[in-house]
Design goal:
It contains ten helices and eight strands. By secondary structure, the chain is α+β, with helices and mostly antiparallel strands. Helix 6 runs antiparallel to helix 7 and helix 8 packs antiparallel against helix 10.
Length: 409
């Protein structure tokens, strides 16, 4: 082996990667500046889906961010994905969550072995800029995604008949392609998973209207499937936990990174809004003897210090998870970090948004006057999103005390 040639090739790849990331970062800046930020308030107030942002992200090639280069995508790292989500969430949390679930759902296609099925799906998703999402959680199981009642039956002549009732599916009614979990065909075990790709125009698909306290535009509502799909729609399945294991390994790391980065973005937005308020707020006199500027008040600076510390520590966890994913750690190796990251980011988002409101005064509580109340409403969803924080803390305790596997759900 020629060491100098190998080193040269590696350096060229690094330069290419850096240039590609810089170009994508510039495109993201444009999308956020021209589309996401101007529409964020309207999307929240009207509770409407951020279709313009999704279209702009597709036009910029960012819906294909995590698709490998050999499949025509950008082949971006987990570190870059975390940065993209954080920046989107700082501008509009609803748009960021739609994007997170798109990237998460893509992982089920990326988990396919090399071959015609994988190539056909990835080419279609990339070329047609399809929006993909998951339909996993169910009314009977909530955020306990490993327990499914939805079914898939074999059809004479080939294909499957899917009967699935799902809850809290982000982008429900707006996605082009759904990743849907059912029991493995022929199994009566709720942990025997099969995962299918169902197109929005296949069969009868109905969804509700999302009316969330926050994340008002992400359409995270119920959706039902009564569809007949072809053989190629089955992405993977397995008995005795094999299908669930595939799903966990394919989807959980990037999902946890994505939602954690989104919560960090919400917290960042609340912090920046508060910082701007403290820097610009002036009193007509000197009411408390510290001056006419709120920035001169020690209590205001303490609020900022508290939030800055929390942001820095949470950012470190999110970046650490991205490094673990990029370092190809196994799911069990990163299970505690991955789960802890979600909880830490969720709690930080709510705490920082509330602190920002406290520091900014009564004006921050008034809807529309400052964006802080929107950030607080968005942040309150974080601890409830599956796997919810209560489950995450119990799971970490079990992993640490018993040394069990993440798959032993």
């Amino acid at each position: 082996m020629n060491t100098s040639t190998s080193t040269s090739t590696k350096l060229e790849t690094m330069v290419h990667d850096a240039e590609g990331r810089a170009a994508r970062s510039a495109l993201l800046d444009e999308v956020i500046r021209d589309v996401v930020t101007p529409l964020a308030r309207e999307i929240d107030e009207a509770g409407r889906f951020p279709e313009e942002a999704v279209r702009a992200l597709g036009d910029a090639g960012l819906l294909a961010l995590t698709i490998p280069r050999e499949d025509g995508g950008a082949g971006a790292s987990a570190d870059e994905l975390g940065d993209v989500v954080l920046r989107l969430a700082t501008a509009c949390a609803s748009t960021a969550m739609v994007y997170v679930m798109h990237v998460t759902a893509l992982n089920s296609f990326l988990a396919l072995p090399a071959g015609p099925q994988r190539s056909a799906y990835l080419a279609e998703i990339r070329k047609n800029r399809l929006l993909v999402t998951e339909a996993i959680s169910e009314p009977g199981s909530g955020s306990q995604w490993w327990s499914v009642e939805s079914t898939a039956e074999r059809i004479d002549g080939g294909g499957y008949r899917i009967t699935a009732d799902k809850s809290f599916s982000t982008s429900a009614g707006h996605a082009d392609l759904y990743v849907v979990s059912t029991r493995t065909p022929g199994s009566d075990n709720d942990r025997d998973h099969a995962v299918f790709a169902v197109r929005a125009d296949e069969g009868r698909i109905e969804s509700g209207q999302w009316k969330g306290l926050g994340l008002a535009g992400n359409s995270s509502t119920w959706i039902t499937f009564r569809a007949e799909v072809g053989e190629e729609a089955l992405l993977y399945s397995g008995s005795q936990g094999a299908g669930l294991r595939t799903y966990n390994e394919a989807n959980q790391p990037l999902y946890h990174l994505g939602v954690s980065a989104a919560y960090l973005g919400i917290a960042t937005a609340a912090y920046r809004a508060c910082l701007d308020r403290i820097r610009t707020r002036r009193y007509s006199g000197n009411p408390s003897g510290f001056g006419a500027n709120l920035s001169q008040y020690p209590v205001a600076r303490r609020h900022i210090g508290t939030m800055a510390i929390r942001l820095a520590t949470t950012r470190g966890l999110v970046e650490g998870l991205a490094r673990a994913i990029d370092g190809k750690q196994s799911l069990d190796e990163m299970a505690v970090l991955m789960t802890a990251c979600k909880v830490a980011a969720a709690e930080a988002a709510a705490d920082i948004a509330q602190e920002a409101m406290m520091a900014s005064g009564g004006m921050a509580y008034s809807r529309g006057a400052l964006p802080i109340e929107r950030h607080l409403r968005d942040a309150l969803a974080a601890s409830l999103m599956g796997p919810n924080d209560d489950f995450c803390k119990e799971l970490i305790g079990r992993l640490e005390v018993e040394g069990s596997s993440y798959h032993d759900l």
